[in-house]
Write a structure and sequence with these properties.
343 residues; mainly alpha; 2 domains; rod-shaped
């Protein structure tokens, strides 16, 4: 709606102004002196009627479709001056008041024209306000039609959205049912996997125990290997001593052959050597018993290794890499070679 329609007056105000103009358009009774007589001829009346018809033609409002015609205010007629009833005015001659009557008539016509002009201005103003009100009504009707159209469109859109939402809900429900079935299957698979995992865990625990046992056996073998190495060092030192003693014996024997004079001393020396030899024999027996003990320990270690190897071969979950097995084999072979050298 435009600014003119916004600031237009309400129909009640327009009606009040219209009634006010109608009241203003009525001719105010002219006070005429009782001694003066105003006579209006028929020509003047015809002229006045023609002026009124022209005014009605100019003030006619074009009728719009769907709108009531604007009321046309009929201008008030000029009052006729009634002849005075006094005896002095009836007895006076007409010619005495002719000029005054004409002057009064002209004044009355001028006042009527001024009133008509004022009425025309007010009526035009009312017509403009009426047109503004009509335009505002048309705009309101257009806005109402537009609002109704938008409401109908929104209703259709809501119906379409509801249908789409129902369709999507059905699709989601079907998808949810499928997912529930898949979830049930997955839960069963999960239970089976948990069972298999528990079995595998127990097997892994058993394999861990076997690995720990093998590690302990390896540590024991390494300790025995170190102990045997120490004993080898001791045996080497004893052999060195025996060689020295043998060399001394040889030197003594040579001395005995060359020094017959010291036979008694040599015999005593021989006796000493025999005693030492006896002691060395005893030591050799002790070393032999120790070697036998080591051989038995080696046999026990071999039997333990064979038992562990058999247990390892029977265990299906224990799968060591070839590098680890080869290292273990080298370790055992080294021990066997060392024991073989001692024999």
């Amino acid at each position: 709606m435009d600014a003119q329609t916004t600031h237009s007056r309400s129909p009640s105000e327009i009606k009040l102004d219209h009634d006010r103009l109608l009241s203003l358009g009525r001719s105010t009774p002219t006070i005429i002196n009782s001694h003066e007589v105003v006579v209006i001829s028929s020509d003047d009346e015809n002229e006045e009627n023609e002026d009124e018809r022209e005014l009605f033609k100019e003030l006619r409002v074009p009728k719009k479709r769907g709108q009531p015609p604007a009321p046309v205010t009929k201008p008030a007629k000029k009052p006729r001056a009634a002849p005075s009833d006094s005896p002095s005015s009836s007895s006076a001659p007409f010619s005495q008041y002719g000029s005054r009557a004409k002057t009064g008539r002209n004044n009355t016509l001028r006042e009527s024209r001024k009133d008509n002009e004022r009425l025309r201005t007010e009526i035009e103003k009312l017509q403009r306000e009426l047109q503004q009100a009509q335009r505002g009504t048309v705009v309101l009707e257009e806005e109402l039609a537009k609002t109704q159209t938008e409401a109908a469109t929104a209703t259709k859109q809501n119906v379409a959205i509801q249908k789409e939402q129902k369709r999507r809900i059905e699709e989601l429900r079907a998808d949810l049912e499928k997912k529930e079935v898949v979830l049930h299957d997955l839960s069963q698979v999960k239970a089976k996997l948990e069972t298999v995992l528990a079995e595998k865990q127990s097997e892994l625990d058993l394999a861990g125990d076997v690995r720990r046992q093998l590690a302990d056996a390896r540590v024991q073998l390494e300790n025995k290997d170190k102990q045997l190495a120490k004993e080898d060092v001791e045996l080497v030192s004893q052999n060195v001593k025996l060689r020295q003693q043998n060399e001394e014996l040889l030197s003594m024997q040579s001395a005995l052959t060359t020094a017959e004079s010291g036979k008694a001393a040599a015999e005593q020396t021989v006796m000493d050597i025999l005693r030492e030899k006896t002691a060395l024999g005893i030591e050799n027996k002790e070393l032999s018993s120790k070697i036998n003990i080591l051989e038995r320990n080696l046999k026990d270690a071999k039997s333990k290794i064979d038992g562990l190897k058999e247990h390892t071969d029977n265990c299906g979950l224990l799968r060591q890499s070839p590098e680890v097995l080869e290292a273990d084999l080298k370790f055992v072979r080294g021990i066997l070679e060392k024991y073989g050298r001692l024999e």
